[in-house]
Amino acid sequence: MTENPTFNFTSARADFPILSTKVRGKPLSYLDNGATAQKPSVVIEAIERYYRAENSNIHRGVHYLSEQATNAYESARGKVADFIGVSDPDEVIFVRGATEGINLVAHGFVETLLEEGDEILITHMEHHANIVPWQIAAEKTGAMLKVVPVLDNGTLDLEAYAALLSEKTKLVSIVHVSNALGTINPVKDLIDQAHARGIPVLLDACQSVPHMAVSVAELDCDFFVFSGHKLFGPTGIGVLWGKRALLERFPPYQSGGDMIEQVDFEGTTYKGIPGKFEAGTPHIEGVIGLAAAIDYVNGLDRSAALAHEHALLVDATEKLSAVDNLRIIGTAAEKASILSFVIEGVHPHDIGTFLDADGVAIRAGHHCTQPLLKRFGVPATARASFAFYNNFEDVDRLVQAVVKMQRFFG
User: Has this prediction a pTM greater than 0.90?
Assistant: First the structure.
């Protein structure tokens, strides 16, 4: 196949210095974007610029460097709000990643909203980060965890979802795009059904935000999380957005400096949002790097980039489907940039190791979705995941390495 003429692949790829890496003398085909995406030069330079010219703690400082760092940090909050389509930047909470964001919401529900006999509804395709916090919340409160099943093609059982919603349901927490299957869930419809019963919804957007424009205002979810490192930004930074009325009900998730109004031995008062949830010195350079990543992504023709990624996924799916004894896990009609597969008689870790020898980087394992893979009868899969800087040569090198591996294992 040829490159999409409406998307300047060559220019985009040149923005990512690590993609020129040679692996054992061979060009790198980086197909592990679902785990973490690579960083464009503008992100790396923004972080370096902070340390060279702005390094200081934020907020209370009155000197020049502190003012510069504070302005950069707080302007990033507004940039995130615009990026996800919300009007109130104070509803944007900076956290270490989506995992911490979900844990913060779970802590808030434990402290304020969950009681014995309540139900929390998740799906069978959730990442462990959207399972374990709710298990702990249920254990602490006597609530119950309910799970929407997944059909054989990797889509949600929508009839079961509707049936599981009840007056006992206090929260729905769902993934937008499955990190193990690539399935794009019909989240707007799922949110509307929950809201018809007055049930708030948390949306895990880690795998959707890097690949498509997502508007919180249009979806009307109540909480929204994503991680910076999957959005071509730094590791260790992420975003929790929540509706003000809900966030204001929650007590602080952590305590310490900068989340207080007044401390006395007789008692302490706390800031409102967002400060109440950002205790201590934050990941300042991470926030600045995330803002640079958002600027970079906003500069792309996102619809053309998405079309390019989809063409890569279709090409890889067609070519790998023709390989003997290879089974694709997750065959939904609506998918985004993720292709998981198993090969009869070969462990996925061996697949990943063999492909690495040819410079092809994929992920092998359970992808933090052990219940989901158990449902499909496999302990692990090999997963190729695409970004806009990949090309059809990467797809061909993936397929060629898989065929070569099969011959090697006989």
Answer: yes
